[in-house]
Design a protein that fits this description.
Strand 2 and strand 3 form a beta hairpin. Helices cover 53% and strands 9% of the residues. It starts with 9 loop residues before the first helix and ends with a helix. A four-stranded mixed β-sheet has the order 5-4-1-6. Strands 2-3 form a two-stranded antiparallel sheet. The protein is of the alpha+beta class and 325 residues long. It folds into two domains: 122 residues, Beta Polymerase, domain 2 (2-Layer Sandwich), CATH 3.30.460; 182 residues, no CATH class. The model has no long low-confidence stretch (mean pLDDT 95).
């Protein structure tokens, strides 16, 4: 089995190893440890299958860099390193600095949960993330699923905006949008697992748990799409999908999203953030008095925009999404 993927080759492992070595060379002087998270960190990354059968990395390289101190200067340093490494490696490299002193207080989020239980330390202390809290596997906050759906709904808006143009999609756009659509399919399944109390960091475990998801909107579509998306994640042969009608696939997934997100939001109650902090955020970002977190406005807006009934402009949605996603 590959170190970074489920079905990838030894040659792909060697390529990713070389990329990780280069990232460590460039970024290690600025951090105590570098931790690869996401698909490659879990050993479930996607091997992109070229037309000649060779394999290449496809997922972004997502790394948490544990630092002594985090301030504006440190953030700017890592932004410049991201640009440098992304250009050099030909793949997006995300370097997210975390202060070591903050690890033990990290909130129970999907990001932190998956970082705790699915990662690979690239440099530094191999046990450094033991400082994170022991997040219980059956108690992930359901509000995290809404944030996941928001971020995947944003991808659907990206596609919707592009399809509004009369220009045909090029090959690169087709592959990117198929990837976006399959990310939405994965989010449906992950959120159904969250509602059922069966969520896990590993897709291998999720496939076993998935029959226990219970009822949800368009259940057969969700089940079929989830398993199909996991299959593509394990073996990224996007060229075999070159005849897929992207617009038709988008429309089908959009319709399910418009039913699924409102259904999911009925499964938990409780306000995000404290009322006092939310008031401050709304005064700053929305110029109004409101005790609901601005992210809750985005939950409504993503559905409205995909329905063609915008409560805010697309540009405003993107602005708020960058700040609160």
């Amino acid at each position: 089995m590959s170190m970074y993927t489920v079905r990838g080759s030894a040659e792909l492992d060697a390529k990713i190893d070389a990329d990780m070595k280069r990232i460590a060379e460039v970024a290690s002087p600025f951090g105590l440890a570098g931790v690869l998270i996401g698909g490659y960190g879990r050993g479930e990354g996607t091997p992109f299958i070229n037309p000649d059968g060779s394999q290449a990395p496809f997922n972004d390289y997502d790394l948490v860099v544990v630092v002594d101190t985090l301030n504006h200067s440190v953030r700017e340093t890592f932004r410049s390193l991201e640009i440098r490494l992304s250009d050099e490696l030909g793949l997006p490299v995300d370097l997210c600095p975390y202060p070591f002193s903050h690890l033990r207080r990290c909130e129970f989020s999907l990001l932190n949960y998956e970082m705790k239980y699915g990662h690979r330390v690239i440099w530094g202390d191999g046990n450094i993330l033991e400082a994170l809290p022991a997040y219980p596997h059956d108690a992930t906050p359901l509000s995290e699923g809404t944030r996941l759906l928001l971020n995947r709904g944003k991808l659907l808006i990206d596609i919707q905006q592009r399809l509004a143009s009369s220009d045909p999609l090029n090959e690169e756009e087709c592959i990117r949008f198929i990837k976006f659509i399959y990310k939405v399919l994965l989010a449906f399944g992950d959120c159904a697992l969250l509602v059922a109390g069966q969520y896990d960091v590993s897709y291998a475990a999720k496939k076993v748990c998935f029959p226990a998801i219970g009822n949800c909107p368009d259940r057969d579509f969700v089940v079929e799409g989830y398993l199909k998306a996991i299959k593509l994640k394990e073996w990224g042969d996007f060229h075999s999908l070159e005849n897929v009608a992207v617009e038709a696939e988008f429309q089908a997934v959009r319709e399910v999203f418009l039913r699924f997100m409102p259904w999911y939001r009925t499964h938990y109650s409780g306000r995000e953030g404290s009322p006092s902090k939310n008031l401050v955020l709304n005064l700053k970002w929305n110029k109004r008095l409101c005790s609901a977190h601005p992210r809750e406005q985005l939950y409504d807006a993503v559905v409205d925009l995909l329905q063609g009934k915008p409560s805010i402009s697309v540009e405003r949605f993107y602005e708020l999404h960058r700040r609160f996603s």
